[in-house]
């Protein structure tokens, strides 16, 4: 007697999945990413993750110039086998084509933000920043939860265009005040009141 699977899992193609598969496979769980031809399913997010994304999205939208727009949890097509989904992206305004759009091209992304979760630590700290840098995304933020007060700590990185790697430019605890990629001023302590 063969036990029937409660949920039929997709069988990967011999050479792995492509971005076309990611964008067209039916019934994938929300926020599925494609990393090196493999589908990556994410665990349910913790409330800290949701609050942090809301806080940063709100702050970025309030300060972004008209030529840039803020998107949350949209696939970024890097190449045929990589379609990660940053928690927040700042994208050139002309990249917004219509409300049915499901992805952005990597060349249109100015800033990628990842809020680290227990199930994504390695991807958010190593794999995805490496891929974003190699693909030429100019700015990357990694957001961690501080141990002493549970507030977000933002690790800011800028692309070194010659080496195609990120260089660390600062860590922000209570206030995120930057002049690149545009003037940004976000009170990170506001998370206590959301």
Topology readout:
Layout: H1 19-24, E1 33-35, E2 38-40, H2 47-63, E3 68-72, E4 75-77, E5 88-92, E6 103-105, E7 109-115, H3 121-135, E8 139-145, E9 152-160, E10 165-172, E11 175-178, E12 184-187
Parallel strand pairs: 4-6, 7-8
Antiparallel strand pairs: 1-2, 3-5, 5-7, 8-9, 9-10, 11-12
Protein described:
- By secondary structure, the protein is α+β, with helices and mostly antiparallel strands.
- 20% of the residues lie in helices and 31% in strands.
- It is built from 3 helices and 12 strands.
- It has helices at 19-24, 47-63, 121-135, and strands at 33-35, 38-40, 68-72, 75-77, 88-92, 103-105, 109-115, 139-145, 152-160, 165-172, 175-178, 184-187.
- The chain has a 6-stranded mixed β-sheet.
- Strand 1 (33-35) and strand 2 form a beta hairpin.
- The chain is globular.
- The chain starts with 18 loop residues before the first helix and ends in a 7-residue tail after the last strand.
Short description:
Helices cover 20% and strands 31% of the residues. It is α+β, with helices and mostly antiparallel strands.
**What ranges have pLDDT less than 50 throughout 5 or more consecutive residues?**
none
Shape: globular
**Overall helicity:** 10-25%
Order of strands across the main sheet: 3-5-7-8-9-10
- The first-to-last residue Cα distance is 53 Å
Largest sheet: 6 strands, mixed
Number of strands: 12
Q: Give the rounded overall mean pLDDT.
A: 94
Question: SSE order, as H and E?
Answer: HEEHEEEEEHEEEEE
Alpha-beta content class: alpha+beta
